[in-house]
Amino acid sequence: MLSILLTIFIVYLAVSLFGYLVHKALHQSWTGRFNSSHMAHHVTLYPPQDYLSDKYRDAGKDDTFWIFAALSLPLLAIPILLWLFGLISVILTGLALAEMLFIGWLNTYLHMAFHIRNHFLYRIPIIKIIFNKWNDFHYLHHVDMQTNFGIFNFKWDRLFGTFWKG
Question: What DSSP element (H or E) covers 153?
Fold first, then answer.
């Protein structure tokens, strides 16, 4: 049981840090084309004055989801390698991979939902409180693109000094 809880905790820390670092990197000019693609989301599709839409405005060829997906492959390989070398069980390997994929899906889903006017998550009584809080922080990220790189976890922003409460 302890190994399961420890796996869940370590994977959450690793994946959330990975997401923070990749998102922050996409806001740096040294990432070149990747920065340009990501800026399409912030400047063209969802600038602060036009942050919400009735339907998600897809960035098409500039969608940085695929950058996150490609860069996450080495992260996904870690539990597999640990299993192959006999360091963790197949159960923990499956758990780690499932958690990584779930967190990736959740980040993508919530990010899209933040930009959709009247998304159903705005209306579910208990969920809407935390959803609105996360969305407020994400909106502030669109106002100042050097802050709030998290989607639903802003602990790394707090730790690295990029958190902005507004």
Answer: none
Going by C-beta distance under 8 Å and a sequence separation of 6 or more, which residues neighbour residue 75?
14, 15, 18, 100
Do 144 and 164 form a contact (C-beta atoms < 8 A)? yes
The amino acid at residue 161 is G
CB-based contacts of 28, cutoff 8 Å, min separation 6: 35
DSSP state of 1: -
Domain boundaries, the chain: 2-27+64-160
Cβ atoms of 21 and 106 closer than 8 Å: no
What backbone phi and psi angles, to 5 degrees, belong to 64? -85, 5
- DSSP readout, 115-130? TBTT-GGGTSHHHHHH
Segment 80-127, tens digit of pLDDT: 999 999 999 999 999 999 999 999 999 999 999 999 999 999 999 999
Q: What is the rounded distance in angstroms from the CA atom of residue 119 to the CA atom of residue 135?
A: 12
Q: Output the pLDDT for position 111.
A: 95
